[in-house]
Amino acid sequence: MRNLWRVFGVLALLTAFSLGAWAEKLVVIAPWSGAEADPFVAVLEAFKEKTGIDYEYRVMRSEDLGKVLPAQFAVGMTPGDVLFTAWGWWVKEFADHMVDLSAEVADVPFGFLTPISVEGKVVGIPYAVWVKPGFWYRKSFFEAHDLRAPSSWEDFMALLARIKAIPGVEDAAASGDEVGWPLSDTVEHFILAYGGVNMFLGLTEGTIKWESPEVRAIFTEHIVPYLEYASEPIEWTAAKDLWWEGKYGIYFMGNWITGMVDDPADLGVFALPGAKAVTGGTDYIFVPKYSKQVEAAKKLVAFLMSKEGQEIRAKGGGKLAIRTDVSPDAYPPAERALIKALQGFVIVPDMDDTIGGEWQAAFWDQLKLLWVKPEALDDVLRVLDEKFPQG
């Protein structure tokens, strides 16, 4: 009998040891907070219920991770097990510190964004897709003031003037800001609309200069006139609240805004007249090789990328699934309408996230300057050319 109890004791220890690897919570670090995070947390909860693996969710944005992780990696440490960043260029740069996730996405049908591979290893996986389709407005606001989406540049300028004249409106357009990225999104949309995809890609690749006459004309003929009706930069979530309250009439933002307002059914959106393309992107999943729970982290990655996990995320709105086999029926009405509106548009990778590095920071800073001092345009364009990465 004593030997039998010893066997049971050994089995109990082995069971405890096997569970011990996952006894600690997986630390998941991603950029979403508040209502924007709710659809993602719903996926984490489904994973926990399915596997019994618990998690701790922490919020940290790409610009903050970019400052913290190099020092952590240098000493073989990581603050989390499964992390997200919008900076694909950064994942490539630090690929030596990443776990190979090839097996976790072997059967995933990807759309216009595909995994980041370095030397045959998948080190970054595109997760939920965001697009920046244009200017958002409240349908109720437009109806109350007899406003309509513009069909020409002249219509757009007239719309701005009409909104500006409405009592209680501070400026026609809200200008979101944080470190500068909402302003860069707006400028990229103008370049796509009035310079076209080839100019946009040329600027991204460095084969076209910012000081070139054709690029400067986009600013002088379209962006600077628009700035006459745009607010000065405001922290982007505060700008969203003020716009929703009616202090501003339109707001350029990505489609994640549908998950951040009280009534998504009241949302309308229009691209600049003439636009045939919009920017899009994602947040990339990666697992640092210094995680002490790599196998559990891989299980979470596999669930995040599964059709089940992607459909749960799609149901929450605010993002589009990276998998092409997720039906439009999985989305709330606002996203279904967006998918329909994007038919016929080309989606190109976000410019500043693609170039990255010091140039991205310079782009953000120079646009903040342009927003408050449009007469500095020539200096802004000169700096963007000087800061562009060489070679």
Write the layout of secondary structure elements.
Layout: H1 2-20, E1 26-30, H2 38-51, E2 55-59, H3 62-74, E3 82-85, H4 88-93, E4 116-118, E5 121-132, E6 134-138, H5 139-144, H6 153-164, E7 171-174, E8 176-177, H7 181-194, H8 196-205, H9 213-227, E9 234-235, H10 236-245, E10 248-253, E11 267-270, E12 277-286, H11 294-305, H12 307-315, H13 333-341, E13 346-349, H14 351-355, H15 357-372, H16 377-387
Parallel strand pairs: 1-2, 1-3, 7-10, 8-9, 12-13
Antiparallel strand pairs: 3-12, 4-5, 5-12, 6-10, 6-11
Helix pairs in contact: 2-12, 7-8, 7-9, 15-16
Write up this protein:
The strands form 3 sheets. Strands 1, 2, 3, 4, 5, 12 and 13 form a 7-stranded mixed sheet that branches. The chain has a 4-stranded mixed sheet with strand order 7-10-6-11. The chain has 2 domains: 180 residues, D-Maltodextrin-Binding Protein, domain 2 (3-Layer(aba) Sandwich); 152 residues, D-Maltodextrin-Binding Protein, domain 2. The protein contains 16 helices and 13 strands. It is an alpha/beta fold and 391 residues long. The longest helix has 19 residues.
